[in-house]
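Thought: the user wants the 3D structure for the chain below. I'll pass the sequence to the structure tool as-is, report back what it returns, then summarize two notable features.
Action: structure_tool
Action Input:
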Amino acid sequence: RFSYMNPDLINPATDTPGIIQFAGNGIDSCNCGTPIHYYFGNAAPRVGFAYTVNNKTVVRGGFGMNYSHQGGVGGREDIQGATGQTGFDANTSYSPSNAGGTPAFYLNPNLGALSNTSLPPYSTTSEINPIVNSGNYINAQGQAVTASGVTYGDPILGGRPPYSETWNFGVQRAVTNRMTFTLDYAASESHFLPGNLNLRGYWENQLNPKYLVLGGLLTKLPSSVDPQTGQTYLQEAQAILPGLQLPYANFGGPQGTIEQMLLPFSQYGGITDAWGDVGNSNYNSLQLTLAQSTFHGLSFNFNYTYSKEIDDTGDIRSGYDIPASVLANGQSWKQDRIDRAEEGAPQDWNFYGVYDLPFGKGQIGANNQFVRWFAGGWSLSWIANYTGGSPLEITASGCTAVGQGTCFPNYASGFAGSVRENGHWGDGVTHANASTIQFMKSSAFAAPNSQTQYQIGDVTRTAPYGLFGPGGYNVDAGLSRTFPITERTNFVFNAEAFNVTNTVQFGGINTNMTSSTFGTVSNQANSPRDWQFSGRVNF
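Observation:
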């Protein structure tokens, strides 16, 4: 239940105006429903199969749907306060009586013997009506009213939780009695994901990029007169885009620019789209696994994954179709397609295992007391992995295309050759020169300038020119042995090393191409080699 005050739901015959109402249908509530439309299609089927082809081969597959919590269906921090819309929540303070001995009021109406059986009245600050928080107009007294922001709780999206469809198909084959090889295809597709709300251009009160052809007129007041032409700026805008009109007759004020005039909801300073979760993603992968159970003291697992994830939940340029007139490459893009891009590292392999060294009792050197005491009983373990680099997102500063999202540059016209320079990521970098060695060429991109200030950058959201950040590998290893002391007592010794090869993985890549340190690395993304020793007595 959340606090809810709506004058339209108060019955003057039975209710006291101006008190808190509780959403729901209980005896102490407003008998009103949630603004969220319930969605009853959240079925979560799961199906799988396994088929034994012969005594060495098994085929497996499966499909399932999973849901999570987001928006108006729970799991959101501020869901108990609804969307925070004006008139839908209030902060009130009630004082208990008898120095705190008696509650300020009771919610239970059956406590008739008590005097404070209802919520005390309080002063309301605003009501739900068509002009709450609105502005950018001239009132009857000739004064400009400043607009404020409002919050929109989408009744449809608020009831749709994020969900994923996952499926897999694979074959497992016994190579030997102790070794198996597995080949799997695994994939998923997800919808209604939280992400960048610029995807919701209209409901975010974003300027449609088709209006960017108006250029500098967007920042002008429509009724002001251009001293050079003698026309109002609105008239000049109408000459470029015939049919433009004021959104309402008394539109005006210092913030009432032509840009504001063209917004979907011109009367508001901004709109918070509380539950506008419309992100999508898909993932496909090929997975290989070679595993061996203990044989002659050796057990190991090697697995490799080659994958590709594409989503539209990152930085977004616009929530509208982008016309060719505002893109430097002369192409047009459908809504969100230019910002549907690859994410995540495409390659990953892991190799881990345990090897009991073949020395000591019953093995090599069994008859040699020195070997038994100093070389027998040791176990070597290791974890080695490699992760490929992730696609880079190249951004810029200085975009002045009003009303748009993230600032992206353009592909530089006529650029040829490799974008990379100065070798592998981090080659030759020291603390002293880290800000001067650049590993990407800024000349591959065109920064926003006075000629392109009302254009939207045309580079792909991630991996322009196939740019990926540095990958890296890591090896951890351990050596352990149990020393018997008595029949029931032993001493266990462990020595472990992390990042055995002391390999440096660089990070902190500056991907803002208008920065003087574009393409530099600024930190170490992993930890240096570290040793750890431990011992314990078991009894």
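Final Answer: Structure generated. The helical segments are 233-240, 258-261, 369-374. Residues 233-240 form the longest helix (8 residues).
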